[in-house]
Design a protein that fits this description.
This is NAD(P)-binding protein. By secondary structure, this protein is an alpha/beta fold. Helix content is about 55%, strand content about 10%.
C-alpha cells in the first residue's frame, strides 16, 4: 500500500536525532548528572524545534492526512496515464497504483507489459515519434477523457561522451527524456486547467542538478525537465489560475533496475557491500513508487528526493569554485575506492544486453 511520504526526508532524520539526544539527556539526568541550566536549555530548544516540525507537517498535509482532516483522492474515478510503465520504476508504480483501485491505468510504452489486469490498458507507442504520441493522446481523450493523473516516467540513458554520440543518439535521448513531456503536456494540460484538477508527475534525476562524465545528453535533458516543471508551476499559478492541478517532480539517485542494478557493486570494489550501500545508497523502485503514489493520494505539489544525499544537490552548484574542485576530487576518490569508477562501462554492457 502507498505510504505517506515526508516532503523532506531530512526533516524526519533531524526529528529522530533530536528525540534520541533528548532521551539521552533525560537518562543522564535520572542517573544523577547535574546540568540544570544546560538541561533546561536543551529542553526549551527541543520543544521549539518539535513545535516547528509539527507545524510544518500540518502545513504540508501530513498531519491532516493522519487525522483524516484532509480528504483522500477518490481513486475509483481516476484515469491514470503513464509512460514507460513496462519496466523498472514505471512497472512498480503501476503495481502500487492497482492497490488504490483507480478507474483506469493507461500505460504507453514501446515495450511489452506483462501486467495483465482489467484496469490496465497497454498502448504500444514510440514516444520519440510526435505523430504516434499525439495520436495516442487524442485516442486517450476520445475514449477516456483527459487523464486525471499523468506520470511522465519513460527515460533513456545514452552512456556516451559528446564525441561518441551520433545525431540519432542525441535525438532519441532528448525526445524520450524531454520533448515527449512537451507533447504530452500540450495535449492534456488544457483539459486539466479547464476543470482545475489533475496531477502531473515527472521522473527527473539527481543528474538534473549535478553533472557526470559520459552523460552530457542525459544530464542536459533532466536539467531541462527540472526547468520545465518550474515554469509549469508558474503557469498554473499565475497564468491559468489552476491551483487544483498539482505537480510532483521526482529526484532519484541510482535506481535498482535491470539497467543500473549491478552498476554499484563491481568486481573492483574494495569495501564490503554494507559499507558501499551506506556511502552510495541506491533507490528501491518499489519504495519510490510508494512515495509517488502517496503524494498523489495527498494531492499536493512538491518534490520527492531519494536517497539522503540527493537533498544536497540543490545547493551544490552554488558553492565557491574552489570548494567544488575539492568536492570533485573527494568524490573521485570515494567512487574509485568503492569500485564504481567504471560504472559507465557497466551501463554500456547492460544496454547492449537489452
Amino acid at each position: 500500500m502507498a505510504e505517506i511520504p515526508s516532503r523532506d526526508g531530512l526533516n524526519d532524520f533531524i526529528l529522530y536525532s533530536q528525540m534520541v539526544i533528548y532521551a539521552i539527556c533525560i537518562a543522564l539526568k535520572f542517573l544523577g548528572f547535574q546540568f540544570n541550566a544546560l538541561f533546561a536549555a536543551l529542553i526549551a530548544v527541543g520543544a521549539a524545534l518539535f513545535y516547528r516540525q509539527v507545524k510544518s507537517a500540518y502545513v504540508n498535509g501530513s498531519l491532516k492526512y493522519i487525522t483524516g482532516a484532509q480528504d483522500q483522492l477518490r481513486w475509483q474515478k481516476q484515469v491514470v496515464f503513464i509512460t514507460g510503465g513496462s519496466n523498472g520504476l514505471g512497472k512498480a508504480t503501476i503495481k502500487d497504483l492497482l492497490l488504490m483501485r483507480p478507474k483506469r491505468i493507461i500505460n504507453v510504452d514501446i515495450a511489452d507489459n506483462d501486467i495483465t489486469h482489467d484496469t490496465v490498458v497497454n498502448l504500444k507507442c514510440d514516444i520519440t515519434n510526435s505523430e504516434q504520441l499525439q495520436g495516442v493522446c487524442k485516442r486517450v481523450i476520445d475514449e477516456h477523457g483527459t487523464p486525471d493523473i499523468v506520470i511522465l516516467n519513460a527515460g533513456a540513458f545514452d552512456a556516451k561522451s559528446l564525441t561518441e554520440s551520433t545525431i540519432e543518439d542525441f535525438n532519441n535521448t532528448v525526445n524520450v527524456n524531454f520533448t515527449s513531456h512537451l507533447w504530452i503536456l500540450n495535449a492534456f494540460l488544457p483539459g486539466m486547467t479547464a476543470r482545475n484538477s489533475g496531477h502531473v508527475v515527472s521522473i527527473a534525476s539527481i543528474l538534473g542538478e549535478l553533472h557526470a562524465a559520459q552523460a552530457a545528453t542525459y544530464c542536459a535533458t533532466k536539467a531541462a525537465v527540472v526547468s520545465l516543471f518550474q515554469c509549469l508551476r508558474a503557469d498554473l499559478k499565475h497564468l491559468h489560475n489552476a491551483p487544483g492541478v498539482k505537480t510532483t517532480l521526482v529526484f532519484p539517485g541510482l535506481i535498482e533496475t535491470r539497467l543500473f542494478g549491478s552498476v554499484k557493486h563491481s568486481k573492483s570494489a574494495r569495501l564490503p557491500k554494507w559499507l558501499v550501500d551506506f556511502v552510495l545508497p541506491s533507490v528501491n523502485p518499489t519504495k519510490l513508487a510508494q512515495r509517488i503514489v502517496g503524494d498523489l493520494n495527498m494531492r499536493r505539489t512538491g518534490d520527492i528526493r531519494s536517497p539522503y544525499f540527493v537533498h544536497l544537490a540543490s545547493w551544490y552548484n552554488h558553492l565557491p569554485p574552489f570548494v567544488l574542485d575539492l568536492l570533485e576530487y573527494v568524490g573521485i576518490f570515494i567512487i574509485g575506492f568503492v569500485g564504481v569508477h567504471d560504472y559507465i562501462d557497466h551501463v554500456k554492457v547492460a544496454i547492449k544486453k537489452q
